[in-house]
Design a protein that fits this description.
The complex is a heterodimer of chains A (about 260) and B (about 280). Chain A is α/β, with parallel strands linked by helices. Helix content of chain A is about 40%, strand content about 25%. Chain A contains ten helices and nine strands. In chain A, helix 7 links the parallel strand 6 and strand 7. The chains are: A alpha/beta (about 260), B alpha/beta (about 280). At the A-B interface, helix 7, helix 8 and helix 10 of A face helix 8, helix 9 and helix 10 of B. Chain A: GO terms for molecular function: ATP binding; ATP hydrolysis activity.
C-alpha cells in the first residue's frame, strides 16, 4: 500500500468573501522509501498540498492520507496528533523564520522529546548530541542561538529537529531555495544520505526542476492547483515530456544549467 | 569613450564592538553602457559594493576609495545634497524584495508619482500619465488597477515590476539591480530581464546586476565580476564562464544540480583560506 495517498484533494480558502481554489482535485500516491517531487511556479498549489497533508491547510474535498490516516484537525492538539507528529515532519523553506529566535539549538532539538515525554535528561542530552552530529554540526553549536548560525547551519538544525522523533515521512517545502548554491549542495547531500540511512520517504516541493530531478524518483508538475503531468526520472532524462507547460519549465531550468 | 562609472580600490568597513569588519576590501572596475554582473555568495560584499556606489552605507559603516566617479564627477566629495539629486535622477537601485522596499500604506500610484510631482514639478494628471506609461513598459497588463492598489495586493512579480518602473521613471543612466529576479518565477524573471535588456540597448543604460545565480548572470550580462570575502577574485566576459580559472568560480558552477545529471552526491565547495588573501 502507498504510504502517502492523495485522492480528489481540493483545498479552498476564503479570501475577502471569495473562494480561492488553491488545489483543484489532485491524485497521487507515494510508496514507502520513495522520494517524490512536486514542481511548479508560485501559486501552483504545490506547497498547499504539503500543508494539507500535515493539517496546516483545510482538506475541502477528497482525502490526503499518510499511512492510511488523515491529518489532525486544524487548530486542535490531542494525543492522536502526537502520534501523527512522530510519523510525519516538515522542513520549511525559510530557516530564518522557522527557528525560534530566542531558543538555543539545544532547546529547539530537545523540545520534541520533552513534548513527547521521550527519555530522561541524560537520554535527551545523548540524542541532541547525536542529532547534531548526524547533520554535520559539531557539539560547539549546541548552545548557540539561530542568529549566531549561517543560513546553511540553520537549515541543518531544522533538518535535525524534524528527525528528532524519528519520523518515516519528511515533507520538504523548498528546503534549499533560501541558500547559496554551495550550501544547497551540502544540504541536498545531507538529505540524500539521511534518507538512505533511515529509509525515509520524501515528498519534496521546489520551483527548481534541477533540484527535484536530482532528489526524486518521480515528480508531478503542478499548474494552477492541478497536476498537469507525472514523470519519472528516466522519462525526464530522455526528454519524454508530453505537456508544453512542463517543457517551458524545463527549458527555463536548463537555461540555468551549469557549464560542465 | 569615458566610462560611466569608475571604481578604484573601494573599501567598506564597519567598526563594531567585536572589532573591525571589512565587508568590501579593495574592489576596482569601470562600467560603460553595458550589463555588468557581480556574483558571489551571501556575505561576499556584492550588495555592499552596490550600496557604497550610491553612498547608501549608513554609519558605523565607512566607505573609502582611491576613486569613485560617476560620469567624471567624484562621488565621495559630493555633498549629500548633490548626491541626493543624482540618486533621484541619474543613479537608481532596485532592491531585492518588493515587500520591504515599497511603502505598505501608500498606493502604488502615489509612490510612483511622488518623485515626478516633487522633483519634476509635474501636474497630477501629467505625473499619472507618466506612471501609467511606465507600468505598461514593464508589462503590467492592468496599470489603472495597479495604480490604485496597495503593495500587499500585488503578487511578488508584480511588486518587483512596480519597483523597476519606479526606478526607471526618472530615466537614470546607471541602474544597480540587487537580485532583482530572485523572488520571481522563471517566466516572470524572463520578462524582467527582457525589460532591463531593452533599456541597456535602446536607452544606453549602464546596468550593474547583482546576483548569487552565476549561470543566470552568465546568460544575461556582458561581463562578470566574481566576489569572494570582499574582493573580486575573477573578472571575465560572460561568454567565457566555461573557461573560468579561479577554483571558487569553478566550484560554484560545479555544485549545481542539473536535469539528467548524475545521481551521486553533488560536488561541494572546499574553501581555501588563500582565496580571501
Amino acid at each position: 500500500m502507498a504510504l502517502i495517498e492523495i485522492a480528489g484533494l481540493e483545498v479552498v480558502f476564503a479570501a475577502r468573501g471569495e473562494a480561492v481554489r488553491a488545489v483543484r482535485g489532485i491524485d497521487l500516491s507515494v510508496e514507502p522509501r520513495e522520494s517524490f517531487g512536486l514542481v511548479g511556479e508560485s501559486g501552483s498549489g504545490k506547497s498547499t498540498v504539503l500543508r494539507a497533508l500535515c493539517g496546516l491547510a483545510p482538506v475541502s474535498a477528497g482525502r490526503a492520507l499518510i499511512d492510511g490516516r488523515a491529518p489532525p484537525a486544524l487548530g486542535r492538539i490531542g494525543s492522536r496528533d502526537r502520534a501523527f507528529a512522530r510519523r510525519v515532519q516538515m522542513v520549511f523553506q525559510d530557516p530564518y523564520g522557522s527557528l525560534h529566535p530566542r531558543h538555543t539549538v539545544d532547546r529547539v532539538l530537545s523540545e520534541p522529546l520533552l513534548v513527547h515525554g521521550l527519555g530522561g535528561r541524560r537520554e535527551r542530552d545523548r540524542r541532541v548530541e547525536a542529532a547534531l552530529q548526524d547533520v554535520g554540526l559539531d557539539a560547539s553549536f549546541r548552545f548557540r542561538y539561530p542568529h549566531q548560525l549561517s543560513g546553511g547551519q540553520r537549515q541543518r538544525v531544522a533538518v535535525a529537529r524534524a528527525l528528532m522523533l524519528e519520523p518515516s515521512v519528511l515533507l520538504l517545502d523548498e528546503p534549499t531555495s533560501a541558500l547559496d548554491a554551495s550550501v544547497q549542495a551540502e544540504v541536498l547531500n545531507l538529505l540524500s544520505r539521511l534518507r538512505e540511512e533511515r529509509g525515509l520517504t520524501f515528498l519534496m516541493v521546489s520551483h527548481d526542476f534541477a533540484v527535484i530531478d536530482h532528489m526524486c524518483d518521480r515528480l508531478a508538475v503542478m499548474q494552477q492547483g492541478r497536476i498537469v503531468e507525472v514523470l519519472d526520472r528516466e522519462a525526464l532524462a530522455r526528454g519524454a515530456v508530453r505537456e508544453d507547460y512542463t517543457r517551458a519549465l524545463l527549458a527555463a531550468s536548463q537555461a540555468h544549467a551549469p557549464v560542465q | 569613450m569615458k566610462p560611466l562609472l569608475e571604481v578604484e580600490d573601494l573599501k567598506v568597513a564597519f567598526d563594531t564592538p567585536g572589532g573591525r569588519v571589512e565587508a568590501v576590501r579593495g574592489v576596482s572596475f569601470t562600467l560603460g553602457r553595458e550589463r555588468l554582473g557581480i556574483v558571489g555568495e551571501s556575505g561576499s560584499g556584492k550588495t555592499m559594493t552596490g550600496r557604497a556606489i550610491l553612498r547608501l552605507v549608513q554609519p558605523p559603516g565607512r566607505v573609502t576609495a582611491k576613486r569613485l566617479a560617476f560620469d567624471g564627477r567624484d562621488l565621495l566629495s559630493l555633498p549629500e545634497r548633490g548626491m541626493r539629486a543624482l540618486r533621484g535622477r541619474r543613479l537608481a537601485m532596485v532592491m531585492q524584495d518588493p515587500k520591504y522596499s515599497l511603502n505598505p500604506v501608500m498606493t502604488v500610484g502615489r509612490q510612483l508619482t511622488e518623485g515626478l510631482r516633487r522633483r519634476d514639478r509635474l501636474s497630477a494628471g501629467a505625473a499619472r500619465r507618466r506612471a501609467v506609461a511606465m507600468l505598461e513598459a514593464v508589462q503590467i497588463r492592468d496599470p489603472e488597477r495597479v495604480m490604485g492598489a496597495y503593495p500587499h495586493e500585488l503578487s511578488g512579480g508584480m511588486g518587483q515590476r512596480v519597483m523597476i518602473a519606479m526606478m526607471l521613471i526618472p530615466e537614470p543612466d546607471l541602474l544597480i539591480a540587487d537580485e532583482p529576479t530572485s523572488a520571481l518565477d522563471v517566466t516572470v524573471e524572463a520578462e524582467v530581464l527582457r525589460i532591463l535588456d531593452g533599456l541597456v540597448r535602446e536607452r544606453g543604460l549602464g546596468l550593474i546586476f547583482i546576483s548569487h545565480d552565476l549561470p543566470l548572470v552568465a546568460r544575461f550580462c556582458d561581463r562578470v565580476l566574481v566576489m569572494y570575502a570582499g574582493r573580486v577574485v575573477e573578472s571575465l566576459a560572460a561568454s567565457e564562464l566555461e573557461q573560468a580559472r579561479h577554483p571558487y568560480t569553478r566550484g560554484l558552477l560545479r555544485c549545481l544540480p542539473a536535469v539528467g545529471g548524475p545521481r551521486g552526491p553533488l560536488p561541494t565547495l572546499r574553501r581555501d583560506p588563500g582565496w580571501a588573501e
